[in-house]
TrEMBL record:
Superkingdom to which the source organism belongs: Eukaryota
Taxonomic classification: Eukaryota, Metazoa, Chordata, Craniata, Vertebrata
Residue span, MCMDC2 N-terminal domain: 6-105
Organism whose genome encodes this protein: Myripristis murdjan (pinecone soldierfish)
Protein name as it appears in the record: Minichromosome maintenance domain containing 2
InterPro entries the record matches: MCMDC2_N
Amino acid sequence: MDADLLKESVLSYLDRSGGLLKLAEDCKPFNDPQQSEAVYRFCISVNPLDVMELDPLLGDCVLHDPLKATALFQSVCFLAIKTLSLIEKIHTESQVNIILKLTHLPPFPEYTLDLCAFNRGYRPMRPVAMEGLVIAMTRVTKYTQGARFLCTEDDCPGSTGFRHIRVHAPGATESATVRNDFSCMICSSPLKEDVKFRVLGDKQLVELIHVKALGNLSNNPLECYCFVSPLHIDELCNSMRIGQLYRVLGIPAHVHQWPNITWNLHEISKKFEALLKATGCSPWRFSAMVAYSFASAVIPPGLFNTLKLCLLLSLVQTRADATDTFYSLDLLVLTTDTLILDR
Ligand SMILES: [Zn+2]
């Protein structure tokens, strides 16, 4: 069997790289009898080059099919935990939550993600390296790493044990992990969360912009950067600083599900279409031009560009019929010259 051979390679990689010893160490804190958890989370360092040398098929899997690779490591780690009795109270494989941390990636262009391309909708589902400047970040907040659900039907085998374990997937929303409308895989009755088993973790969202966006600023009189890409930072909370350049390794994921912005193409004026066509060579030029000439009847073009861009973004983001103000973009403007702005 293909999978069995791959699992053998995982085991020998863990053995050679010291991963097994680390696993045994990481299991120790979980043996506190006071504590019961739905999932046990382990971060495993993986050097793709070493894996490639050991087993090219497994190496390929680690680099291009991270979900499958994680499942292989999960299976092997569960077996190791059971065989070596590392955690007594673990019951099922689904309680093992494995995070594969790649130490580096091959130095080829396909393993580097251009942040501009990411913004245009290109989202590879595999590890890539990204480089960008941090322009904003959220506070550190809690999220559910794993939860245990029980069947509400008393006679169902799903009403006890650890058959229904939900684990947070990178980029997923909280409601994908914890919700009250999941149903039992055995009898389809509603599931109820056993909250005392919930495992919480820290997360932080960081927005990166491409360095080129800054270059555009310095030789372009229009002050604008319109590129943002929220990153979900798990392990490195509070370790990044605004204004610094970072290289991040990870799988790009869609973190926020903003309502889709749609418009009717027929209502867009010819001038706008022409402008969009003419500025297609750069991802920032169109927004810059629009901001530049926005409200030119009251403000001379070129003044307060950043503010005008923010107003435009706010207009795009805020819909008249929106009952949910969560998605509105509120603006707070501080200035010494209120005369022009009042208009
Ligand atoms: Zn059931």
